[in-house]
Design a protein that fits this description.
The protein is of the alpha/beta class. 23% of the residues lie in helices and 31% in strands. The chain is built from eleven helices and 25 strands. Strands 1, 2, 3, 5, 7 and 11 form a six-stranded mixed sheet that branches. Helix 1 runs antiparallel to helix 2, helix 6 crosses helix 10 and helix 9 crosses helix 11. It is elongated, with a radius of gyration of 31 Å. The N and C termini lie far apart (76 Å). 38% of the residues are buried. The structure holds copper (II) ion.
Amino acid sequence: MSNLKIRMIVSVIGAVIALTSCDQSSEKSSSTQANIEKESTSNLPVIKAVLTQAPNVPPPITRDYVAKVVVNMETQEKVMRLADGVDYMFWTFGGQVPGQFIRIREGDEVEFNLSNSPDSKMPHNIDLHAVTGPGGGAASSFTAPGHTSTFSFKALNPGLYVYHCATAPVGMHIGNGMYGLILVEPKAGLPKVDREYYVMQGDFYTKGKYGEAGLQPFDMEKAIKEQPDYVLFNGSVGALNGDNAITAKVGETVRLFVGNGGPNLVSSFHVIGEIFDKVSVEGGDLVNKNVQTTLVPAGGAAMTEFKVDVPGTFIMVDHSIFRAFNKGALGMLKVNGPEDKIIYSGKQADKVYLPEGSATQSIANPTVAVENEDLTKEQQIALGKNIYENNCLACHQASGEGIPSAFPPVAKSDFLNADHNRAINIVLHGRSGPIKVNGETYDSVMPAIALNNGQVANVLTYVLNSFGNNGGQVTSAQVDKQRSIIPAKIGSH
Ligand SMILES: [Cu+2]
């Protein structure tokens, strides 16, 4: 039934009540109204709502009738992981961020029982954007610690809606994680898909910077300035990464219920390597097709639907991209199944590209030169570690394992261990062309690294004595000698 029709019926009922109250005694009219109210709740079958924690979604609704749905939810204040080594006192609906997912059907009458844990310090309430009524339920659900509030509403409009706490200071309650999604399925249901997931973004404001260890308090000033330290999917850095990634199989259709709790930022939601076949824009009836990035407002939502055609890891981001790579707004969808080389070939070739007249590039090194003729091997290793982390790690990796078919390993490297002078020259002058390391051939470019003799000696001594290599020592004098034998081709290092 359309909203218009519902509104018309409601207003007709209202008119009838108004008429009766004109003709009859006020006593009678109030009993008529009470009957209508009683009728609409007592005759409906009663169903207890299934609530789920993200990224899970309650099963699709299969019934074709209106029901009275009872939702029991508890607000809890809880210290949980924000990032590795970082804890935060979250305020939650149901003990997790985002809050539990609620799924009902258009026309349902919802009895909402909001309990506030006796352990809470704060009162809380709930404003559901699916509610037609003042405050979306907020005033009726204001609940002190150790209490339960009950209110009812009728779900007039289908769609995907945000709910959140609206207790003052509202921004702080939302900023601490008090938001979630409620889906009001249209009477005809949503189109069938193979997988459904719940992803909700939020921004967090901590006293310490991103990654600063320990229990981090909320920072009101940063929140007011809208300068979050964390922008997250599902309440923590990595909540949807690695083993926690959401999954699908090639050929399946996936629906993401995407919400944005804010409190401040608007999300440019994007899945790298996928195109949304359909987006229910802002969670409403409007369906857009073939969408790359969909805007999810603070306090808003969207439903995205797509078929996964090829296997791989698909990264979900807020495409305001520093949020993804520097503030945590990054999740993963892992798709398993057979490749389709027509849809996506994978890498077919990688050749060194050196335009005519160009030379191997050189990375400038801002670190101050230190001469170190008299260092012990142990001191060289200690200094070299730092040099490695700043100059080599990006390619050869923290473990020294390199990256398959791009950067050779300096871990247990037969190439390195066989000839120290050759390694010195690679660091001094860079290297390109085929190279065989531990039986694997690489054909790539290492830039010359601008280091002084002492630094080259230290970093190589560090590498030789790390990552399972054979040990040994490279001295500044040795580097100096190599430098004089094969002069630098480019630059003045
Ligand atoms: Cu609250």
